[in-house]
Design brief:
This protein has 331 residues and is α/β, with parallel strands linked by helices. It has 13 helices and eleven strands. The chain is globular. The protein starts with a strand and ends with a helix. The model has no long low-confidence stretch (mean pLDDT 95).
Length: 331
């Protein structure tokens, strides 16, 4: 199977590794305009094209060519990695920027990590299946020798500051209220790594100031594995009651200790108290933090279990799943 991968760099690199491990001949391509994608189509003998990642990186000019002029032998799958939140952005179609990509490119099959988005995609006439995020053991794995300061708690990720005014009930903010607010109220030091809007978002959503010394701006992706390994607790915000963030898989794959906002999706794939811990309220967050401060052996066991829990959630398994779907739908 020959595979072409187009989209966000981080997702593309991970998916490339997955397809190569699954025995495919895969490569990443770059095409942001009509001429570039037509040139690729004129010479390719690939069997599958997959697009993925942030929809704003998949340019409409190129996607329209994919939808109208791709070779007949080339099957095409689009993986929605934004979910229903993509509807919150201004779009040409009015159905969200992810649907703009789908309308332009006309995939043979769409994958999504969001059940609510799957319903919308099917409603609009496109076949769609669920596929969760995953992790790559190349970029995220346990790192022996890293010291774990029991007082080092981190929160790494985007603030989603663009939704504060328009969607103040976003699940990301719900997660912040459950996880971050009680720790700050109880004078815990929480190190925040994220975009420049984080401090303002915390102020508006939680009514609290982020101490200057504990806000560190964006963390390069290449450093996240070391951060997950060296933290006593990695706080994990979720974006939806029925989805799991990419970061969740990467923290577990790193052998990090994850404290996540509870939701239905986590309980379907993982076992709270064995693979990670989850909280549904500020009070529960504090109870959990106090408990694992006093029970370091159990804390270490959860870290060991975390790695095992995602053994079947690498991009190799996701690539194999895609190949099975191709066989189911088209061969």
């Amino acid at each position: 199977m020959k595979v072409l991968i187009l989209g966000n760099r981080l997702f593309s690199v991970d998916m490339l590794w997955g397809f190569l491990k699954a025995g495919c001949d895969a490569q990443i391509i770059n095409a942001s305009n009509e001429n570039q994608i037509q040139q690729i189509f004129s010479t390719t003998d690939a069997d599958l094209l997959i697009t993925l990642g942030t929809p704003i990186e998949l340019k409409a000019e190129a996607m329209k060519v994919v939808g109208s002029s791709r070779p007949q032998h080339l099957k095409y799958i689009h993986w929605d990695t934004d979910g229903i939140s993509s509807k919150y952005f201004a779009s040409v179609s009015g159905d969200g920027i992810e649907m703009d990509v789908i309308y332009n490119s006309r995939p043979d099959l769409v994958l999504t990590m969001c059940p609510e988005m799957r319903e919308l995609i099917i409603e609009k006439g496109f076949p769609c299946e669920m596929m969760h995020y995953a992790y790559s053991p190349v970029s995220h794995q346990p790192l022996p020798g890293y010291e774990n300061d029991k007082y080092f708690i981190n929160l790494i990720g985007n603030s989603y500051s663009m939704f504060v005014k328009s969607h103040p009930d976003h699940y990301r903010y719900h997660s912040l209220k459950i996880l971050l607010k009680p720790l700050l109220e109880n004078k815990y030091t929480v190190h925040l790594y994220g975009d420049s809007g984080y401090a303002a978002t915390v102020k508006q959503i939680l009514g609290m100031d982020v101490p200057t010394l504990t806000y560190h701006n964006y963390m390069p992706y290449e450093r996240t594995c070391a951060a997950y390994n060296s933290s006593f607790i990695n706080l994990v915000t979720q974006n939806h009651p029925h989805t799991i963030t990419k970061r969740t898989f990467e923290i577990l794959g790193s052998g990090g200790f994850a404290l996540s906002a509870d939701n239905e999706a986590i309980r379907k794939l993982f076992v709270p108290g064995r693979d990670l811990i989850v909280s549904s309220s500020p009070e529960e967050t504090m109870e959990l933090v106090h408990y694992y401060e006093k029970n370091q052996d159990e804390w270490r066991k959860i870290r060991e279990n975390a790695v095992v829990s995602v053994e079947n959630h690498t991009y190799k398994q996701r690539a194999e799943y895609i190949l099975k779907l191709l066989e189911k739908y088209y061969y």
